[in-house]
Amino acid sequence: MNQSISPEKYIKTRARTLKIDRCLVNADWNSSKFAHVTIIRKHTNGNFTFAGYLVDLLCLGVKDTFYGFNQLEEDMAELSEAYGMENEMVEIEYALAHNIIFAGEEFASEYHIPQHRDFVNITKYLLEEDDERVPLIEIHTGDKDGLPHLIVTSSDSYPSALACLKRYAGEGKYHYTVLDKEGLIEDGNYFGEDDDAEELDDDFPDCHLWTRDDWRSFISDLTQENYRLFMQEFSYIFLMAITKPGLEERGLDIINELSIADKGVDWNENGDENEYIKTPEEGVAIEKIYNQITRKGASSKEIKKVLSTIQDCIKKWPNNPLFRNYQYNAYLLLNDIDRAEAEIFETLRLFPDYLVGKTIYADYLIAHNRIDEVPAVFNSKRYLFELYSYRSSFHINEFMHFNTSWLFYYTSNEDYVMADFYTRLLEIIPGDLLREKQHKLLEMMDIQRTMLVLKLVSKSKENTVEMDKLISLLINDLAR
Q: What is the pLDDT of residues 238-280, one digit of tens each?
């Protein structure tokens, strides 16, 4: 096997050529509506590549996923044993496993709820293509009436999913339940009165509800070999131990900030981004140029031909900055850096309020070691609705570009408190809308999160005082 290829790339490009060895799911998946699905494929060398999927069939779809690459048989045995300690796992046919995962994903997508980024970018490629070659099995999603039901362990969990339900399901057409240590504290009419609170806790093994002993055991058992299995927990640790207190020092409350950050964003991908397009002919030209300039593998000759078309459009529709943006990108594709940079300044001169022009200029400033000038580009406004207070709606692409600029700015300044905040805003955007730049920034933040959390964990293992201090930041009021 070629060891130079990364596990991620292997899974994306070759995993489907491996034979499926077995598929597992928790025995109570159909009654609990939470499925822990594991798909295991076998290499010709006898090793295994696998992926696990936590599927919330009530609402969220694929809410978590992880994977292992080229694992030894004894490693798989340890994983199976660990899984078996929390859930009774049963072996199932691949078709059922496939349908469970994609039924959850499809149901969540009806309400524009983003799926876990690693599922979108990596682990879905370990599954077969979701087409007619896989037999269709009916999987019930939603509550008994087929309505989405968002169940969370605290009122500050999954605020973006709740916002999506409000937008796309509408009031009265979804359920929302908050659990506490005693059971349900909101919308308690879904479960029967005879349901046992301990059984509910078992159905939601969420680190939000871990006790001091749970965290102490988790931290003590973390090793250099197994930490990659706990990226969801690492994200939570970073949020609670680094981002939340860091924002509080700046007078900011993480819950409030996250709740208002997407104000006015139209998740239907409409918004006002197309306010510059005044005629149907203009819209057709924009779409055609976009398809041409974003096509992979286009030759220099083809790009030059598109550039000529763009320049004709600029003459025909001089008040549309979108053509300017395409001209900038065409120059970049032709490696004509001087003309590309000149286009940045010309676009800003002509359209000083054009958001994409601002974000490109911010990138230019960072690349030229003028990072301190970036906040002024956005009038030091943290949110779109503050920067454009005269507008009522924003296209999701504008939300993405704006928050990407702030994320790039804060990572360049190594301010990982604010960088993590803007990372979480990008993470609520459906993965198929993100581009290469966003994926690279998010991957970089994953590395930073891991490094900084491992540093905290290592420090806490060496000193009981540091351990207690870290755990105090991690447990919420319900677990105290």
A: 999 999 999 999 999 988 888 888 888 876 654 455 677 778 8
Tell me, yes or no, if the pTM score tops 0.70.
Answer: no
**Contact by Cβ (8 Å): 147, 57:** no
* Residue carrying the six token digits 């590549």: 49
Q: How does pLDDT run across 391-437, given as a tens digit for each residue?
A: 888 888 889 999 999 999 999 999 999 999 999 999 888 777 788 89
Check if the beta carbon of residue 426 is closer than 8 Å to that of residue 403: yes
